[in-house]
Hints:
single chain, alpha/beta, Rossmann fold, 37% helix, oxidoreductase, globular, 6-stranded parallel beta sheet, 5 helices, 6 strands
Amino acid sequence: MRLGFIGTGKITSAVIIGICTSKISFQKILVSPRNRYIAQKLKKRFRKVNIAKTNQEIIDKCNWIFLAVTPKVGQKILPKLNFRSNQKIISFISTINLSQLKKIVKKKVKIVRAI
């Protein structure tokens, strides 16, 4: 299981800390480069955490995608990303509902809202 996080703020930090300190089995975690400070802290603390160069790299290399950006940022960046149909998406974006996400993603993927 390869986990990717688009958005590197408090929610992403909390979820990654929870995953890395649990017994959940995964190969690696890839985080977006947006907040370098938080991304570097997570990478330094957990050996399986790496920082992607771009958000598309996360989509290309991970099969579980966590969306943890503001609604405004989500509307701007998500349509530019090329998702794959075998991916699972967990969204923490508060005001973008499932039907809106499906239109934005443009692939038949499993999407769950966690907020």
